[in-house]
Amino acid sequence: MNIWVAGARPRTLPAAIAPVLIGTSLINIDNQGINWVNALLALAVGLLLQIAVNYSNDYSDGIRGTDEVRVGPIRLVASGLATADQVKRAAILAYSLAAISGLVLALKTSPLLVLVGGIAIIAGWNYTGGKNPYGYSGFGEVSVFIFFGLVATMGSYFAQSEKLTWQSLLLAIPMGSLSCTILGLNNLRDRPKDETVGKRTLAVRLGDKKARFALIALLLAALVTSLAAVAITPWALLVLLTLPLYLILINGIMNGVTGLGLIRLLGKAGELQLLTSLLITLALSITKA
């Protein structure tokens, strides 16, 4: 695999696609057609921001030396496959393309999106970058919930309707919770190493046992709020088809899996988020039909 494709961490991209699918398809309940140009622009912003964050994390962690021993995906700087400057330029390019896509979307809808997009870019860089990265202080999950849950889902709906509704907020919660689950599993996997290098992620702050309880709470929150979408359409019960994945994840977390076992659970969490978004999208489409 090309090192730049690997460095972009394609397995994380469903977390960027899922909320855009839901936010875009929610326009169906308004009995309006989807604006596909706006939908594609919203998707481009989401994907490019995810890729940019992945590259900037690789760069920032690499120059700090916190990525030298990893169980997870390849890191370009730490492994020596690319220089820090090369990865930094890749991150800046991805952020720039995200900004351009967002600017075009804002020109087609509302200038408010310029402000939201700017804040998202700053948050993405400062997750592990800057003098005081908040990802090193246990606030990564909060940021992920806001930007890959609330902003991504509600922003995609706003790109279609130019309004925000309680329905878009409700459907943003499971997306944010599942994105936090993915990050939480990643941080739980890296907890022993992060603790030794002073990276105080939420998993490090809570400790192994409490971090696992927090993950289960996030999964339950995602399931409950997904099913609560029956208030929007009874077809939201399709989400029950994801129960096997929930059981696999909860069982693995409760049984204390570590290392490679957590990597497998990360894959399942990504599948769960994407499947949830597809089922809710289907439910909303059936409702319109």
UniProtKB/TrEMBL annotation:
Leader sequence residues: none
Pathway(s) where this gene product acts: Quinol/quinone metabolism; menaquinone biosynthesis
Chief location bin: membrane
Gene3D superfamilies (UniProt xref): UbiA prenyltransferase
Membrane topology according to the record: Multi-pass membrane protein
InterPro entries the record matches: MenA, UbiA_prenyltransferase, UbiA_sf, UBIAD1
Entry-linked HAMAP family: MenA_1 (MF_01937)
PANTHER family: 1,4-DIHYDROXY-2-NAPHTHOATE OCTAPRENYLTRANSFERASE, UBIA PRENYLTRANSFERASE DOMAIN-CONTAINING PROTEIN 1
Protein name in the entry: Unannotated protein
Organism: freshwater metagenome
Taxonomic lineage of the native organism: unclassified sequences, metagenomes, ecological metagenomes
